[in-house]
Write a structure and sequence with these properties.
3-stranded mixed β-sheet, single chain, 54% helix, alpha/beta, 6PGDH_NADP-bd
């Protein structure tokens, strides 16, 4: 079992840290805003007052923060990971950031004798709670193999995708697929309701056919109840679609459906829905279809 510093105890990070503690790892958690470590402490973990305190004696450091600027904030500087972790420490970044940020971090960490894996996850809050996340990993194969006991405590599908940055590239593709899928689901829901079909019955049978998907299975109940409590916030998906768009431009890939989905997500954030679950794309389709805003409230 490892001593793990877990930095970022948000919607995803908190249940992941809890599952690591339940698996027998010694987990020390830190969060930028206080008051997020209660679940970890209840599971047998500890709370640190600073990044330096959390990482000082850790074998493994895990980061789960919103975006590239936050990863850089916890990694660099006199109070950051690279200045306070021991040589030989394995840094696993579960955040969803740009591939280049991951490549740069790995290079800077290597100068300190710290190994890095970019390991973004998919599965949302439910997957984090259940410990069944999909984890796409970039970095050295030997480091990936060494990290398997950590990954297996939080994920069900764990795949080494290539060198540093490869995990983030695959996560960008994941977010592209999820965005287009969510938009198609939202349009189908409005189409079905406008046609007078029993929506619950329709989604049940659709889920058993070729139209079935993890997105439909995970989001169906929330859509039926119009409950958009965030499992993954629209504002974070907006950030991820920016990563997809930028990376696609760099490699010369054309993403027409992705571009439309990205604009619709941007529109939802601009309307003030950024803190809602990304399934709240439904609200935009409802507005375009003549529903009053209160219907999706």
């Amino acid at each position: 079992m490892s001593t793990i510093a877990f930095l970022g105890l948000g919607i995803m990070g908190s249940p992941m840290a809890v599952n690591l503690a339940k698996a027998g790892h010694a987990v020390v958690g830190w969060n930028r805003s206080p008051g997020r470590a209660d679940a970890l402490v209840a599971a047998g973990g500890k709370e640190a007052g600073s990044i330096a305190e959390a990482v000082r004696d850790a074998d493994v450091v895990i980061t789960m923060v919103p975006a590239s600027p936050q990863v850089e904030a916890v990694a660099y500087g006199p109070d950051g990971i690279l200045e306070n972790a021991r040589p030989g420490t394995l840094l696993i970044d579960h955040s969803s950031i740009t591939p280049q940020t991951s490549v740069d971090l790995a290079k800077a960490a290597a100068e300190k004798g710290i190994r890095v894996l970019d390991a973004p996850v998919s599965g949302g809050e439910a997957g984090a709670v259940e410990g069944v996340l999909s984890i796409m990993v970039g970095g050295e194969r030997a480091d990936f193999d060494a990290a398997r006991p950590v990954f297996d405590a939080v994920g069900a599908t764990v795949v080494h995708c290539g060198p540093h940055g490869a995990g983030q590239t695959v996560k960008a593709a994941n977010q592209l697929i999820v965005a287009v899928n969510l938009q198609a689901l939202a349009e189908a829901v409005v189409f079905l309701e406008k046609s007078g079909v029993d929506l619950a019955a329709a989604l049940e049978v659709l889920g058993g056919g070729l139209a079935g998907s993890t997105v439909l299975a995970r989001k169906k109940d929330g859509i039926l109840a119009r409950d958009f409590a965030p499992g993954f916030k629209l504002e974070l998906h907006h950030k991820d679609m920016g990563i997809v768009t930028d990376a696609a431009r760099t490699v010369g890939a054309t993403l027409p459906a992705g571009a439309v989905a990205a604009q619709l997500i941007a529109s939802a954030v601009a309307r003030g829905d950024g803190a809602l679950d990304h399934s709240a794309l439904l609200r935009g389709v409802e507005l375009l279809s003549g529903y009053g805003r209160e219907q999706g409230a």
